[in-house]
Amino acid sequence: MNSAKPRKMRQAIGEGRWTRLTLITIALVFLGLMLIAPLLVVFVEAFSRGVGVYIDALAMPDTMAALRLTLLVAAIAVPVNLVFGVAAAWAIAKFEFKGKAFLLTLIDLPFAVSPVVSGLIFVLLFGANSVLGPWLDGAGIKVLFAVPGIVLATIFITFPFIARELIPLMQQQGSSEEEAAVSLGAGGWRTFFQVTLPNVKWGLLYGVLLCNARAMGEFGAVTVVSGNIRGVTTTLPLHIEILYNDNKAAAAFAVASLLALLALVTLAVKTLLEARFANSLAAQRRH
Amino acid sequence: MQVRAENISKRYANMAALDDVSLTVGSGELVALLGPSGSGKTTLLRTIAGLEHPDAGAVYFNDRDASESRIQDRGVGFVFQHYALFKHMRVMDNIAFGLRARKTNKPSESEIKRRVMELLDLVQLSGLDHRFPSQLSGGQRQRVALARALAIEPSVLLLDEPFGALDARVRKDLRRWLREIHERTGHTTLFVTHDQEEALELADRVVVMNKGKIEQSATPDEIYDTPATPFVFSFIGESSVIPVQVGNGRATLDERMLDLEVGNLPDGPAQLYLRPEDVAMVTDGGPGIPGLVVSTRRIGGMRRVTIECGLARHRIEFDASAEVTIANSQRLQVRVIGGRVYGAGSEGYATEKLAASATSDFKWAKAEGWLDR
Ligand SMILES: Nc1ncnc2c1ncn2[C@@H]1O[C@H](COP(=O)(O)OP(=O)(O)O)[C@@H](O)[C@H]1O
Ligand SMILES: [Mg+2]
Asked: Nearest CA of chain B to the CA of A160: how many Å?
């Protein structure tokens, strides 16, 4: 049944063979020029001075520090957004309340605002001239130009990924299964972990992947709040920029290849998930 | 367990989904909640289950105010309209869910398994315990949903359009089967349906709802024989409606083209409701109401004929023998041999059933050209 469908569709759309070929060619050429070529350049440049330089660049203490910081930031930001994202999606999809539309808009805010502006918001909030800044200083807590600021900015930037992934999924599924669970005597936690979560697990995993990729790759907001203190507040993207500005192109590309690799792994896992996800969604739709 | 809903009201935006509804389901009774789509059936059912909070009124389970207990503790088996099976769980885990969720008296895993198998047997699905819901037909899913609800040994069983999404054939089978299960398990049961045939065939008592109110609550026989309101009359079967004028115990139309004895209805405008079997074609040349055939269609062994009568061309439907040939635009005469007249009463409706004897006597004005329009 499935294999017959596309053929029928094509007939229905009724585009000629040439139109189709032209469109596909344009799409492929564009993809090749704009996406694949740059990615290739990263790897070519990374190895342009030989494997030795590549390994040296990766083994630099600053690189290792940047890698550790990046992993630390992601390790905090992703779980936090996992919890908040699920909570927000749950609230929006399963309950009716005043201000729901506003909350939805709010979730999209980080997507709408330029990352640099997001970073500046935190500078305004925690800077020396702000209300919170001196008070936190007095308490001996450094937010700006330190790890907490980077973590906060990253959480802000990556907040929408998980919530946005879950909201349409949860809305589509409605709350009748949860109602069934509750009427059968299940409490809130049991209902969540045994009914709600399994129904959105693929979407959730996908959201986590995207969130993680962005958390590790975020530049704009982080560069504003980090103060670019080498080996202390530089994440991988910031470290790459510093290397590049120091005319160490090969080293910069070597570190960049790490991030590019992360992107490729994310995409590969995402593709696998989508195949899986599509199946389980299709199975659910057959209801 | 007796279930009592008292003076329940529930509004959505500016529309009353339930308007001061009271309903009692006796212990072990099988009651149907019948009404058109949007009449508030689901809302009432959900309110009883605790899934919806009424704006006013209360639900009692055996004189205990149910609003004092959580949904989880009400012991209500709810079968959802679209089943709401847990998609990612196998049939047996679906059915076992309620038993595993128990805080007290939780049976051992082997006991749960035994109970699940027993229930699968009851709903005639033995052998399908390892299937996922997506691998079942609609009727099978419906049975799993019922088994899952029965597993918690509910004090009350609530079913929302249990057969609504199934085809006619499967529906008939499941109907009989649900009746059997009810007789065997004896649960207090309330089920929702928009299908009058289903309600009348299955239930001990039928509660007819319309626009958030209960129109009538009675046995299937009473509902059919003495429908309390015009709505019940027209919802329970095919009907034709003719506006009549009541005066001096007689209902008349168009200067006595129709003239029926109606007992002691108050004077004033009223509605004459006729079922197809309340109207007969005049074949013996006697007096009758003249009408013009506008359509005929075959229904089983009979021919359903629609005619237009009177100055305002009121439509009347009746059944004629399939052997008689009746053509469109043909003129014929019919006689009213039953039916019911609804007039304005002190509260709601005053209604009189027409006795065949009372209705055989009527005159018809010599048609003054109205038939030859
Ligand atoms: N969650 C809701 N929000 C707004 N209106 C609702 C909601 N649920 C039901 N209604 C309205 O209440 C009325 C009764 O609905 P319902 O109880 O589902 O009717 P039925 O089950 O008899 O078809 C309908 O007009 C419906 O539109
Ligand atoms: Mg309904």
From this structure: 27
